[in-house]
């Protein structure tokens, strides 16, 4: 399959897509899983690192936090490019145009260059803050110095990636040609196919700049730190367990970081230079393509590994994140408590207002309230309904002579003690012990039902 030849330019192109099945299906599933994990991990790391950049009490140098932040951004851009590659795998052909193709190639190039360079800058910062003098330490920990180094590194990377803008495009791969109908079946692919001499020099420069130099720098910086700490411990009169723990952490970081670096990048660069060797080993073209897909997946795996290594293996970052997380939980809890108290007060005031309004309505509604007054005539009590000039009904309460005398005595004693504590003239208070029990009966003038006499 070769790029489109000029003599087929006037032929009708029929774009074909290969169904997703077989080994290519498992390749697409594997890429998709790592893509989802890559997005999740780097977004979570941004959530961890971003508040630390704005905090003033973090003991970790701001430059290292900024480098990790830029590394997460670079990894997210790589994940976006990986998503375009997954779509190409699923569809079987490149469904986009020229600009998405260049975007994919640039993001893929950023993964090759930016991530190793940032890892090297982090290693160099750790070495400087431990092994150099105070002036160098302050400059290495400065976020302004980190921003300047990132800008310079991006300029160098864009200069190296210049052939990508020049030779990267969407190619039509000719699958079959029908001379009679002048139709050609093509498959569209986004790729970077420079001339052989340009491709050779580009691979050499890219390998040296993004693989050899960062690897040498990482090894030198991280090996120098434990050696420096060990010399300081030997010259110190008092041995410190913290010094031994720091040396062990640095050694573990070196082993893990270099192991991930070698595993993820060495096969990639080996296949870049020895594709011809692999094709001569008796493997089929399909097998070689599948193997290359999985080898090409390893640099994407490094996008997950680098930030996790720097965040989870850095005790200062973990402690600072836990402290900020506790403060945020306290702040959110305080806000929630304030909101709950405010809502409770509003509901209480509303309920009080409603009860007050209902009480006023009940007391002031004459249509639904019946009041009674009493009068005494000829040893009888008459209960008369108030609220109008007419008397709808009269209830006569008969008292015996002894009860009348007891009532007069109670009325006399009530006048002496005050009118607040006794109601001698009110037959409604018949349940009190100093007032005789009364019996209600209808008068002769108006007939009242039995249910209405139960006052």
From TrEMBL:
Where are the annotated segments for Disordered? 401-455
Q: Polar residues bias located where?
A: 409-421
GO MF terms, alphabetically ordered: G protein-coupled receptor activity; peptide binding
Transmembrane residue ranges: 29-54, 66-91, 97-122, 143-165, 201-229, 250-270, 290-313
Q: Name one Pfam family in it.
A: 7tm_1
Gene Ontology CC terms: neuron projection; plasma membrane
Keywords linked to the UniProt accession: Cell membrane, G-protein coupled receptor, Membrane, Receptor, Transducer, Transmembrane, Transmembrane helix
Stored CDD domains: 7tm_classA_rhodopsin-like
Task: Name all G-protein coupled receptors family 1 profile domain ranges.
Answer: 41-310
The name this protein goes by in its record: G-protein coupled receptors family 1 profile domain-containing protein
Per the UniProt record, the lineage of the source organism begins with: Eukaryota, Metazoa, Ecdysozoa, Nematoda, Chromadorea
């Amino acid at each position: 399959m070769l790029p489109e030849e000029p003599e087929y330019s006037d032929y009708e192109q029929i774009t074909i897509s290969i169904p997703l099945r077989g080994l290519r299906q498992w390749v697409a599933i594997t890429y998709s899983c790592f893509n989802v994990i890559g997005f999740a991990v780097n977004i979570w790391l941004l959530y961890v690192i971003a508040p630390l950049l704005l905090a003033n009490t973090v003991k970790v140098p701001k430059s290292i936090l900024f480098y990790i932040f830029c590394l997460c951004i670079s990894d997210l851009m790589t994940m976006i490019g990986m998503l375009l590659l997954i779509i190409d795998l699923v569809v079987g052909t490149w469904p986009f145009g020229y600009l998405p193709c260049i975007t994919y190639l640039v993001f893929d190039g950023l993964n090759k260059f930016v991530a190793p360079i940032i890892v090297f800058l982090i290693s160099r910062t750790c070495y400087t803050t431990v092994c150099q003098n105070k002036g160098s330490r302050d400059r290495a920990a400065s976020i302004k110095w980190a921003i300047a180094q990132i800008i310079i590194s991006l300029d160098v990377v864009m200069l190296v990636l210049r052939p990508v803008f020049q030779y990267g495009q969407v190619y039509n791969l000719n699958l079959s040609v029908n001379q009679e109908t002048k139709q050609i079946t093509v498959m569209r692919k986004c790729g970077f196919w420079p001339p052989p001499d340009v491709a050779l020099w580009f691979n050499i420069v890219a390998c040296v700049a993004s693989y050899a130099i960062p690897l040498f720098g990482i090894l030198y910086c991280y090996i120098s730190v434990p050696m420096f700490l060990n010399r300081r411990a030997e010259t110190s009169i008092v041995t410190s367990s913290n010094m031994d723990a720091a040396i062990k952490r640095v050694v573990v970081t070196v082993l893990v970081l270099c192991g991930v670096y070698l595993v993820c990048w060495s096969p990639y660069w080996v296949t870049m230079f020895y594709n011809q060797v692999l094709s001569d080993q008796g493997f089929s073209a399909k097998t070689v393509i599948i193997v290359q897909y999985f080898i090409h997946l390893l640099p994407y795996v490094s996008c997950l590994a680098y930030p996790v290594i720097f965040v989870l293996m850095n005790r200062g970052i973990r402690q600072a994140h836990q402290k900020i997380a506790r403060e945020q939980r306290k702040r959110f809890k305080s806000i929630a408590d304030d909101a709950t108290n405010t809502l409770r007060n509003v509901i209480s005031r509303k309920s009080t207002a409603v009860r007050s309004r209902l009480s006023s309505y009940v007391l002031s509604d004459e249509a639904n309230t019946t009041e009674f007054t009493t009068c005494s005539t000829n040893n009888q009590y008459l209960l008369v309904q108030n609220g109008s000039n007419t008397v709808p009904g009269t209830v006569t309460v008969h008292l015996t002579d002894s009860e009348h005398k007891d009532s007069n005595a109670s009325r006399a004693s009530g006048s002496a003690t005050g009118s607040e504590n006794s109601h001698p003239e009110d037959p409604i208070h018949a349940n009190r012990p100093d007032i005789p029990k009364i019996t209600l009966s209808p008068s002769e003038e108006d007939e009242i039902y039995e249910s209405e006499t139960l006052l």
